[in-house]
Amino acid sequence: MLGNANPLHVLEDIFRAALEWLHASIGLPWAWAIIVLTLLVRMVILPLTIKQIRSMQHLQQHAPELKAIQEKYKKDRTRMNEEVMRFYKENKINPAASCLPLLLQIPVFISLYYVLRHFEKDVLTQAKYAHSDLSWLHVVPSITDNITAHWSGWLLVVVYVASQLGSIISMPTTDPRQRWIMMALPFVFLLFIINATFPVGLLLYWVTTNLWTVGQGLVTRQMFPKAPPPPKRTSRTPPKAAPSGDGSGGAKAVQPSRADTPGQPRVRRRKKKGPRSRR
């Protein structure tokens, strides 16, 4: 019931009702209902995902300046954290925005896991679903089976690893080491997936999410191109013009040096030779 105080139970009821509606009203098979439900979830969090991409691009743009601050105060962790937070505030960077879409998908993932775990007891016991087909593309025998129960589950595992690596590559990041760590995560999750009672339908949700992320990365790169880095100041960079003191708001003209004045030859002065010492 939706009145349950547990938020995960509320999500379970919502997802179970959504799957039943997609199957009974639209006529989608259960596996395709899971795929459509995944797409609907990703569309709901799409505004946050766009904000995440912009935040990560903004962070990439200022990565050299941030690295310089970390290098300058590397011996003083407290001062470094203070300067980094001040830098974030001055440049309007929110590092937490890049984690929010991922955090929102965790309760969705857990709720769908429990929906599929009790799917046969809570849904298929109803008379109108007595003869429902739980297979997918005549390859997956049942979306409620454990992935190790059939060779098709192992096929989905291979697709999962490939799609997870593709989604990580398509995501912008400022630290190459962080990318390598994230690319190792699918193989760590693989041990959990194999040893746990992981239903095929949940892995189907995960694969669909990864493929959405890959396509989303390709589209957003065209819609939100990478911003150019801020200009670096060098010794040749002219100083900013100071405002004049007469209240007119105009910039005070910089007087050119004698060497920069055109049309006047540069006069070289000869050094005066002192009297030669007599031998």
In the predicted model, the low-confidence regions spanning at least 5 consecutive residues are 233-237, 247-254
Shape: elongated
Care to count the β-strands? 0
Helix coverage percent of residues? 55-70%
Helix count from the secondary structure assignment? 10
State the major sheet: none
Beta percentage is under 5%
Give the mean pLDDT. Answer: 77
Secondary structure category: mainly alpha
Measure the end-to-end span.
117 Å
Oligomer: single chain
Number of domains: 1
Report the C-alpha radius of gyration, rounded.
Answer: 31 Å
Order of helices and strands: HHHHHHHHHH
Structure description:
This protein is mostly helical and 279 residues long. Helices cover 57% and strands 0% of the residues. It contains 10 helices and no strands. It has one domain (7-223).
Task: Give the helix/strand layout.
Elements: H1 7-24, H2 30-44, H3 46-61, H4 63-72, H5 77-90, H6 100-117, H7 119-122, H8 151-170, H9 176-195, H10 200-223
Helix pairs in contact: 1-2, 1-6, 2-10, 4-5, 6-10, 8-9, 8-10
Task: List its salient traits.
mainly alpha, 57% helix, 0% strand, 279 residues
Compact summary:
The protein is mainly α and 279 residues long. It has helices at 7-24, 30-44, 46-61, 63-72, 77-90, 100-117, 119-122, 151-170, 176-195, 200-223.
